Amino acid sequence: MIKELHQKLINKEITVTKLISDYFNRIKNQDKELNAFINLNEEQAFKKAQEIDEKIRRGEEIGLLGGIPYAVKDNILVKGLKTTAASKILENYIASYNATVIDKLEKEGAIIMGKTNLDEFAMGSSTENSAFFVTKNPYDLSRVPGGSSGGSAVAVKSEMSVFALGSDTGGSIRQPAAFCGIVGFKPSYGAVSRYGLIAMASSLDVIGPFATSVEDVEIIFHTIKGKDLKDATSHEVPDFTNQEIRLENCTIGIPKEFFVKGLDDEIKNKIEEVINKIKNYSLIKEVSLPQTTSALPCYYIIMPAEVSSNLARYDGIRYSPNPKFQIPNSNLNLHDLYFQTRGQGFGQEVRRRIILGTYVLSKGYYDAYYKKAQKVRRLIVNEFQEVFKEVDFLITPTTPTPPFKIGEKSSDPLAMYLSDIFTVSSNISGVPAINIPIGLTKDNLPIGMQIIGPYNSDLKLLAFAKLIEQILV
Length: 473
Ligand code: GLN
Hints:
binds glutamine; 11 strands; alpha/beta; 11-stranded mixed beta sheet
């Protein structure tokens, strides 16, 4: 889609201003119902559109992303725009600098439509944990769009933006992409700079793109990837362009631990159908990743530990205080003040995780929980390294079920956590993984398939996913 739009723009079949206004019109018509956006960036967007139109008129070259509208998850900083992380504690915070990914996309001329809804501080799998409103699934408004990057996934699916940025700590790009029938890519840990991303769990967080095709996701990834001096964990991504990827030369692993009880039958059957198609070209091999069955419990120790530390900076005073907070007595001591602001500013799920994290890091429990989880994490990393000596890629379902009903799991955190069962192990081990849509259930709900590659194989994985996309049509 990006390449075609680019052609239309440079052939002067459409102006950037017209393109942007078409997209804003769709937002106006649909978003009252869908609730994908927290804030829009209309004025700036049209200003930039005019600048790029002017460039085109002068016959200057514009990049592939020049004038292309995109949406940004509201935990990624855009200078001058509110960045709330869908939390009351940041309701009035205006970012004073750009995230590195935003700088890179700005340089290419992409245009921000607005900031999208998420589960508060990216904690959740349904976008129901936003402090502001619930985002709806475009396939069925009574269902969740997935989360935490639900707003970004809906913006792309409903053509309110061409692509979008999300963040993935345990599945927050792939799961909503699966629930909304689009492509969502979680790069290798460190392949994209985290500078300017509001940290959830720093050893797991990664920024990645949503789009309607693997090709578009690849274009965006090429723009945002790479080492950034402002993020010491970032690195260059190895190039594979000289190596042609052919399905005939690939061995695909099917990990049996991902096809167990609890996996929805329709999803299972659809994935098997796709695997049978791939069998015509590639070697398919059943593999076993026994340690991945510990990935979810391991995640729910490491992630809250990091959350409790990262969220300690929100005291209700820095990052613009919220005038809605009631602070009854101005003589409060510091401890009581924090108690008041953090108690009012954080939602239930965020508080739950801060408490869990503080507990697993506390004296006497640190060894039993946190240290042990780190050891399990190492075993999972090793297991992925071993399996990728045998196979080139792994294919699994992205989610155990199709999109669930709004409210269905909100009172049962464990049921909610289980929706990430197939996605968290890639964050725990740092490997790249992508969701591609593969069809619909009989109730017309989207089904996603996950492809996982070895650490730093991002470009190869995208090339492979494009081949799979082709044999699906
Ligand atoms: N749903 C997972 C969680 O609640 C993952 C969130 C994410 O990837 N940001 O933690």
